[in-house]
Amino acid sequence: MAAMWQCQGVSRTVAPAGAVRQGSLRELNLALVLDRIAAAARPPSRADLAARTGLTRATVSAVVEDLIAGRLVSEADPTPRNGAGRPARGLVLAGDGPAGLGLEANVDYLAACVVDLAGRVRHHTVLRADLRPLAPADALARLVGLAAAARADAADQGLTLAGAALAVPGLVDDAGLVRLAPNLGWRDVDVPALLAGHPPLTERVDGVPALVVDNEANLAALGELHAGVAGPASFLHISGEVGIGAGIMLDGTLFRGARGWSGEIGHIPVQPDGRPCRCGGRGCLEQYAGQEAVLLAAGLAGADLPADTAAARLTELAEAGDRATLDALAEAGTALGVTVAGVVNLLDLDTVVLGGGYAPLAPWLRPPVLAEVSRRVLTAAWSPVTVRPAVLGSEAAVVGAAGSVVRRILARPAGWLAHRR
Amino acid sequence: MAAMWQCQGVSRTVAPAGAVRQGSLRELNLALVLDRIAAAARPPSRADLAARTGLTRATVSAVVEDLIAGRLVSEADPTPRNGAGRPARGLVLAGDGPAGLGLEANVDYLAACVVDLAGRVRHHTVLRADLRPLAPADALARLVGLAAAARADAADQGLTLAGAALAVPGLVDDAGLVRLAPNLGWRDVDVPALLAGHPPLTERVDGVPALVVDNEANLAALGELHAGVAGPASFLHISGEVGIGAGIMLDGTLFRGARGWSGEIGHIPVQPDGRPCRCGGRGCLEQYAGQEAVLLAAGLAGADLPADTAAARLTELAEAGDRATLDALAEAGTALGVTVAGVVNLLDLDTVVLGGGYAPLAPWLRPPVLAEVSRRVLTAAWSPVTVRPAVLGSEAAVVGAAGSVVRRILARPAGWLAHRR
């Protein structure tokens, strides 16, 4: 890659090309330098960047000036050096430039979150609210309030929101239409149309709608991917909430399926003639390992706890050795393990991440999941499967949503620079 | 692509580079011209190829001479043209050049097949044999006999075998070690070591072992991909035999999983506490929709029929309206449908191909599969799933195996040309 950019950088100097070519060269160089700054273990100098990109030092300096002017990059305090010479100033991703707004409308809460270019969470609010009795327009109106508060807080911190992504526990098409979210009771909800009166969420930024709507489990898997855990970039991330969704990560890329509807692990049958499910089917995993099923089995039915409160309550009871809770978690873990074993037999993934409400419950869910995997996966004897809790729990989707906006800027900084002119 | 090759072709003429560069240019041009000949709807002339590749006519002529000399391409009879001028001679893939040998060791049969460059099956033999009582070495010895007969027949037809691929209903590692084939009773069977006394199957050709061992369901899915059906290149291909395997085709590429063990759909649990399975698990799909389960339910247990005979017998009985057979197929189709619904919920594939012994039984299996899909797949109402019989049935794996050798030659013709010197 570097060699190619270098070649193009040289031709730019020697033989200036037309406007289009200039523009695209500039875009490539901006993205390349920004990528090297983002990837560096410690703040690189301009000279380091020249060496790492293959661009000339003059080109690097010009590109860095553009990135600094656009508030994408800032200069770190110089670190003292041993040896002769003035210490070089290192470059870091700006902590006061563009940021991403993440939003989530889930069954029993709304959330908003702001993530800066460096991936730091700068704002995070969760509003408990059972959305099921609400009309979608009313639920979204409350979300707009949360978004406005996040925007104001971001501004106070010197950040500019460059776009937003909304996580919904359902099937979303490319235009932001929620085709079906069984646990919310939403069907064909046109989110962009319902948000039309809120320009910060509906205008287009750099050719992309200011708000992208996506599946909650997909965004949670992306959040986990970028949460900084060393390890394989291929994994199954399971978000255990009222509904159960999965994100299938293959070599760092989310597998979305033929039409974008992949990951509905909660509706894999575990008992074909079993309990009826809201989806119209029977015996779906959700009916055995979803939050409501676990609460019911633990004797907490009707408590109507939000996902992380439910997980915290179950954790508390399990830690206290409450028999009903331990049995409920064992039963849920077994159902989850049966399904995970089937998925591993089919896809041969070597890492399963227990996310969402499952993350804090992993000490109790992991053993039965591993037992089913070892009993049912053909290759388990010589190809072990790692089952681990997610680094992010219930906040993975909203953090992943905000992070997806940030990564779009990092991948195409020229768009951001053009937009803010 | 074409522009890049053209650019390289020009630089070759203008400024001859070193030996390595020459070699790789020649390889690229050989592969490019051969690809265009293979893809053409009707035999292209040298002038057509120059237009389609962007190479000069002189380069095309030189490349075509190499391909003809290497028996990869031959000249078709000239087709009469309307209008002035001598009819141009079209070029076709040679029918008397290198060919691929496909082999299969399945539970109750051995098979061998030869496929020429154009994808035509030139030899196909199936030997009924229950391999379960045999030691792996004895089973492979019989396969060597089949391979020798295929080789002799190919030679009689002017073909040269350029390599072989062996399909096994089990988990195979990169070195050809069969880690586990539950229905054969094989565990850690080192196929290349057992074939060491048979040089045509063990020497290396062009850096690749003369014999590649692969999973039967994977090769069957590849066979189906290249069987010439128009349609999406993303599908789930299910091979229904004694065991049930799947090949997951995503955009024309086989999805092999993290370590190459994907596709074990037969061991997805359909009744977690159900019938014990040879794999050590319980309630695996194989125990409800595998050949033995269907025969047992249809009252044909102990008949011990090979896969295609079993399918033919079941077809005959179903067509005659035999109640037990119809019930057995409905039950198998339902179990298959429950599993397929789970897979579609997880992966959002829009096409499911019923292959192997399922192909002729599709008229009876398809309705219950579709019923379960429509009942259980969240997106079924607006994103229909196509369920169709495979074009190739039980022969898909052995044909796909032979075809995989042919496609290796087409992708890298220089290797073949170097080898035959």
What are the salient characteristics of this protein?
421 residues; 44% helix; 20% strand; 5-stranded mixed β-sheet; Nucleotidyltransferase, domain 5; homodimer
Secondary-structure map with pairings?
Two copies of one chain form a homodimer.
Chain A: H1 2-14, H2 19-39, H3 46-53, H4 57-69, E1 73-75, E2 91-93, E3 98-105, E4 109-116, E5 121-128, H5 136-156, E6 160-168, E7 171-172, E8 177-181, E9 186-190, H6 191-194, H7 199-202, E10 204-205, E11 208-209, E12 211-215, H8 216-225, E13 235-240, E14 244-250, E15 253-254, H9 286-289, H10 291-297, H11 307-319, H12 323-347, E16 351-356, H13 358-376, E17 386-389, H14 396-411, H15 413-419
Parallel strand pairs in A: 3-6, 6-12, 13-16, 16-17
Antiparallel strand pairs in A: 1-2, 3-4, 4-5, 7-8, 8-9, 10-11, 13-14, 14-15
Helix pairs in contact in A: 1-2, 2-4, 3-4, 8-14, 10-12, 11-13, 12-13, 14-15
Please give a structural write-up.
The structure is a homodimer of 421-residue chains. Chain A is α/β, with parallel strands linked by helices and 421 residues long. Chain A has 3 domains: 2-79 and 87-93, Orthogonal Bundle (Arc Repressor Mutant, subunit A), CATH 1.10.10.10; 98-219 and 397-419, ATPase, nucleotide binding domain (Nucleotidyltransferase, domain 5, 2-Layer Sandwich); 230-390, ATPase, nucleotide binding domain (Nucleotidyltransferase, domain 5, 2-Layer Sandwich), CATH 3.30.420.40. Chain A contains 15 helices and 17 strands. Chain A has helices at residues 2-14, 19-39, 46-53, 57-69, 136-156, 191-194, 199-202, 216-225, 286-289, 291-297, 307-319, 323-347, 358-376, 396-411, 413-419, and strands at residues 73-75, 91-93, 98-105, 109-116, 121-128, 160-168, 171-172, 177-181, 186-190, 204-205, 208-209, 211-215, 235-240, 244-250, 253-254, 351-356, 386-389. In chain A, the strands form 5 sheets. A 5-stranded mixed β-sheet of chain A has the order 5-4-3-6-12. A 5-stranded mixed β-sheet of chain A has the order 15-14-13-16-17, with helices on both faces. In chain A, helix 1 crosses helix 2 (19-39), helix 2 crosses helix 4 (57-69) and helix 10 runs antiparallel to helix 12 (323-347). The first copy, chain A, is globular. The interface between A and B is large, with 50 and 50 residues.
